[in-house]
Amino acid sequence: MIPRIVLSVCILAAAGAVRNPTTRIGASPVAARTPTTAPAAPATTQPAMDPRVAFARETIARHIEEMRRQQNAVKVAYIDLNREISESPARFVLIADVRLTLQNIISRLNQARDDKDIRAVVLNIGDTDFNLAQAQELRDAISALRRDGKRVFVYSDSYDTASYIAASASRDICLPEGGEIVIPGVSINMLFAKGLLDLIGVKADYVQIGRYKGADEQFTRTGPSREMRQEVDKILDGIFQQIVDGIACHRNISNADVTDMINGVFLPAKLARQRGFVDHLVDQDDLRNLLKKELSREIDLVHDYGLPQREPVDFSNPLALLSLLMKRPSPQEAARPSVALIYVEGLIVDGESGDSLFSGGEIGSEDLRKSLRVAVRDDSVKAIVLRVDSPGGSAGASEVIYQAVRRAAAAKPLVVSIGSTGASGGYYVACAGNYIFADPAAIVGSIGVVGGKFVLKDLFGKIGINTESFIRGNNADLFSFSRTFTEQQRRLVTEWMQRTYDQFVDRVMATRKGRIRDIDEVAHGRIFLAQQARALGMVDELGGLDKAIAHAARQAQLAPGSYDVRVIPSTKSVLDLLRGEDPDASLPLRPKIQGDMAQWLSLFGRSESRMLKMQLRLVQMMQSRPVALVAPYIFTIN
């Protein structure tokens, strides 16, 4: 809105010009009183309006029109998702956390939904990188906006499977005329390394409990077993059907037409509009004109809607930059009650979390235990949500976290939200909660155990290295890399793993008894999509993180809008690193020095490199923790 003082100045200037039409602003009064020409003869018609008076009147009219236009303009929230979406916020930041998290996006969409000043939302998906479960959660948030009467305009230069699934809930999907929708279907890429191990002289000596477990097959076989193939086919069928059903339902298009579109892979923009897959053919630069046309009003676009204001950074001032680096992230206010959000993301390992050379993200048992302790002891925290996105990991670490979750659940309402994966150790941890939500595309289950070692004797022989073992005790070389298990050792390892499996089953039935009817139906390493897992009693309700937070708040008798969501642990600053302080007592503050391996692995693509890093980290972990609760196979779904 034009400030009132500006308008007042314009009015005063105009009035002055009318009273003294020969006076120019800044001219000498004396000069103004001295006529430059002889007096004119009396005019027979009205004198022409002084140009300065006309200019002043025109300026006033223009300002009034601008004020009216802005008063009549509708506010439209603009949210840019043009980068990778992460599950959890950064553990450490230099200046500001620029990571885009799923919870942050949904929170901003919910804010726009409840904001009475916001008429519509523009969501720029762009080159966003997210998985199927995250896409479904975004789609649900868009649906909630539309149910509350807000229009949602989704724009992208082109759409892939995940981005189109998220956009499909909108009735205003925008695409440039030269753009396209590319949905090639669903594929699962798996790696089998036995051929490589044979080539270099490495033998994987593994034992598994649960015939569907299959976590050793990536190292012991050159292709999938019949049981593994059966499980993979089941997952693929379920995911493909979810994609087809979801698009057909939200776009009001037949399943047959959606299937035809997927089988054709590439759908050009004009044809996509004809078939009802998009609504507007528009370039990004013409979005404002489209909004004005569709909303029939002037547009007041609110950029970066829902993001906190950032302080300007003077990079030319070293002291100012140093001060900014030393500044801690703003603490979350504890004046209002809160729901604590704790992430269990990545491979589950013993001790503290760390981003090692080969890790695709991991969470340490000690860190989870401390985070839960902080949430329980903080009186402002009224409920806890545990967000699980993990294929499992160390059996010992999973048990430590399970016990910590049970203690927390006894003290406060604790709800679990499973993202894309809650398998093996991930499900072991999840079933400790009082109530489990899961995204429809989440992979759940894998109740089984795998363990073993890699024997490197032949490899060492190939490169001229001899080994000699000196032992005291019959089985001191049980996990030696220089020899395979003896029959006695294999029996000992199998018995140990069977006890771990039995404990896994006991932990599940301790909290899911009465909901899981037949443990044998869901155990033995089987995996399920969340829809089937719900029917079997493994999860309680289908839904994303937002639903889980709302449910936890209701359990704590918190009214909507009366509480905050607080992530534990909080993000750490440079000052925390230098001091070694840990306000939440939750994370190691001195990160490990990294090498260049991650850069080389990134050449395979984001999802493939993450899978490779996690595979390598699992091998590294099992050298010290040979019994693991890990998903039957770590794969990437395209």
Characterize the structure shown.
- The strands form seven sheets. Strands 13, 16, 18, 19, 20, 22, 23 and 24 form an eight-stranded mixed sheet that branches. Strands 11-6-5-4-1-12 form a six-stranded parallel sheet. It has a four-stranded antiparallel sheet with strand order 9-21-25-17, sandwiched between helices.
- α6 links the parallel β5 and β6.
- Among the domains are: 47 residues; 149 residues, 2-enoyl-CoA Hydratase, Chain A, domain 1, CATH 3.90.226; 243 residues, 2-enoyl-CoA Hydratase, Chain A, domain 1 (Alpha-Beta Complex), CATH 3.90.226.10.
- With 638 residues, the chain is an alpha/beta fold.
- The N terminus is likely disordered.
- The longest helix is centred in the middle third of the chain and has 26 residues.
Keywords:
638 residues; alpha/beta; 2-enoyl-CoA Hydratase, Chain A, domain 1; eight-stranded mixed sheet; six-stranded parallel sheet; disordered N terminus
Main beta sheet, described? 8 strands, mixed
* Net shape: elongated
CATH architecture of the domain at 331-448 and 508-632: Alpha-Beta Complex
Q: What is the count of helical runs?
A: 24
- The share of residues in helices is 40-55%
Structural class, from secondary structure content? alpha/beta
CATH topology grouping of the domain at 331-448 and 508-632: 2-enoyl-CoA Hydratase, Chain A, domain 1
Number of strands: 26
Rg, Å, rounded: 32 Å
Parts with pLDDT < 50 across at least 5 consecutive residues: 1-38, 356-360, 585-604
CATH class of the domain at 331-448 and 508-632 reads Alpha Beta
Mean pLDDT across all amino acids? 81
Q: Write out the CATH superfamily name of the domain at 331-448 and 508-632.
A: 2-enoyl-CoA Hydratase, Chain A, domain 1
State the end-to-end CA separation.
49 Å
Indicate the proportion of strand residues. Answer: 15-25%
